[in-house]
Q: What sequence folds into this?
């Protein structure tokens, strides 16, 4: 009996000691820290080439379903969807446009939208069909993924959150807070260490993306997801299929002039 009472006392002491404030809890389910997880993600995606790329060109097609609607008045198929990117060398804000970027969405010869940032000024063209979604096209509601490339620099905070799954694949979850106090959450595949998803809040709702169909560039060590699905408040708005991509090839300045 005395042994049982002693065991109960020891157990209670251990339980209450775990509640003492000021102690740092271990990383969820043990294992790597947030910093180490991000290092593994960068290495799996191409290392220095992926973390410090110069340019990226993506071309493909996409299906547009605003608010998840698939009727003829809303759904559109872009048979020409493209992105041109000149990457910045510094970035301390996940939601601000940086470097140079251009997006084109066309249906046949009809331009649905064109978004351009030339490193200083934004030049956008929105068709009448695109204008109702103007806020959804703002840079602050779309930039976020690239901030991971800078998360190992001074002024950034990285935290490991509870593990989760994306499309059935176990993922580490890491939250990055940039120097502007903007928060972006990344889901890193525990097996291949690819970035499976990114999530952040916007002024038009909670935004997340799912990345899949990863391919490695033929000329450089750079992994690109060739399918990207975009969601607002849990509803799929866009499904992008990148059919071609080129890394670190020259992009003329004229590309970013409208």
A:
């Amino acid at each position: 009996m005395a042994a049982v009472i002693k065991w109960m006392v020891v157990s209670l002491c251990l339980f209450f000691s775990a509640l003492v404030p000021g102690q740092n809890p271990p990383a969820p389910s043990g294992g790597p820290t947030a910093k180490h997880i991000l290092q593994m993600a960068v290495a799996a995606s191409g290392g220095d080439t992926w973390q410090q790329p110069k340019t990226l060109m993506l071309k493909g097609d996409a299906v547009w379903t605003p608010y998840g609607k698939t009727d003829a008045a809303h759904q559109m198929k872009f048979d020409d969807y493209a992105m041109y990117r000149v990457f910045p060398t510094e970035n301390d804000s996940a939601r601000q446009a940086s470097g140079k970027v251009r997006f084109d969405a066309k249906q046949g010869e009809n331009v649905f939208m064109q978004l351009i940032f030339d490193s200083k000024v934004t030049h956008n063209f929105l068709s009448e069909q695109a204008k109702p979604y103007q806020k959804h096209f703002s840079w602050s509601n779309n930039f976020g993924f690239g901030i991971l490339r800078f998360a190992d620099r001074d002024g950034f905070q990285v935290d490991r959150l509870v593990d989760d799954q994306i499309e059935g694949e176990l993922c580490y979850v890491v939250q990055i807070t940039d120097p502007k106090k903007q928060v972006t959450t990344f889901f890193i595949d525990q097996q291949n260490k690819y970035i499976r998803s990114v999530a952040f809040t916007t002024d038009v709702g909670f935004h997340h993306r799912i990345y899949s169909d990863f391919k490695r560039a033929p000329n450089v060590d750079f992994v690109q997801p060739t399918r990207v699905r975009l969601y607002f408040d849990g509803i799929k708005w866009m499904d992008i299929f990148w059919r071609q991509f080129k890394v670190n090839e020259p992009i003329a300045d004229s590309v970013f002039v409208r």
Remarks:
- Helices lie at 2-17, 34-45, 48-51.
